[in-house]
Specification:
The protein is α+β, with helices and mostly antiparallel strands. The protein contains 6 helices and 8 strands. The strands form 2 sheets. A 6-stranded mixed beta sheet has the order 1-7-8-6-5-3. Helix 1 crosses helix 6, helix 2 packs across helix 4 and helix 4 packs antiparallel against helix 6.
Length: about 240
């Protein structure tokens, strides 16, 4: 099955600019909370705004948590943070559970696809999951802009010549190597560095980018099963691989 991955260059540091991008991104869920609360007040008992409000608030809080985790990991030089044998399938499953409420709110179908059996990799489990969830948030919010029916998001892992590729995939045509490269180049110079892909700041992508950099991994674009995605490249630990 054909697929490709490409190195897009070094990830951005967790800088003041990323914090500004994050603040810009967080305006959206809080505006949504305010709007839904206003509608609920006007409609009284005829309109239940709580599911939307809860989902928007949870998404904002988790994105902040992921940013703070990235800061914590980046502040531990020499990879002194705890790594452990991690099941990629388990991390994808847990990331999917976190993303499911937001996917439902945006009417996006969320799938889990694991091609083959993988032995454990040595990784910071919480960091890897946070990176995948941050990518999922960014792509879910970007998908409706594609104006396509039956939108779907797929959490997937597969083997490549680079290692195990685990990421978040969709059918957004503009999710390419050039889009990510241009986004990194414009990052810090414009409020919307990835306008081809999403109308916002893309903070979730850059949070994931920085987390993976702190973990001595990398964010890359990937194509798999006719879908395009953003993924982490993970190296299996030979001593822990299943025979």
């Amino acid at each position: 099955m054909a697929h490709s991955t490409a190195d897009i260059g070094p990830a951005p540091v967790l800088s003041q600019q990323l914090l500004l991008s994050l603040a810009e991104q967080l305006k959206l869920p809080f505006l949504q909370i305010a709007r839904e609360a206003e509608l609920a007040t006007l409609a009284g008992q005829q309109y239940d705004a709580m599911p939307v409000i809860r989902t928007a608030a949870d998404s904002a809080i988790k994105l902040l948590d992921n940013y703070m985790l990235g800061v914590q990991l980046a502040g531990q030089p020499g990879q002194s943070f705890l790594t452990e044998p991690v099941s990629v399938s388990s991390v994808l499953y847990d990331a999917g559970a976190e993303l499911l409420p937001l996917a439902k709110a945006y009417d996006v179908r969320l799938d889990l696809k694991i091609d083959g059996k993988f032995g454990p990799v040595m990784a910071h489990r919480q960091g890897l999951q946070a990176a995948l969830v941050s990518l999922g948030y960014a792509l879910i919010e970007a998908l409706p802009a594609a104006d396509k029916p039956q939108l779907r998001l797929q959490l997937s892992a597969h083997r490549s010549r680079y290692g195990i590729v685990a990421g978040v995939y969709c059918d957004a045509e503009h999710l390419t190597t050039n889009t990510l490269r241009q986004g990194r180049r414009l990052y810090g110079q414009t409020r919307q560095p990835m306008t081809q892909l999403m109308p916002g700041s893309g903070a979730g992508i850059f949070v994931a980018d920085a987390i993976l950099q702190a973990m001595q991994s990398q964010l890359t674009t990937s194509r798999h099963q006719h879908l395009r995605g953003l993924a982490a490249i993970l190296q299996p630990n030979p001593q822990l691989q299943l025979v």
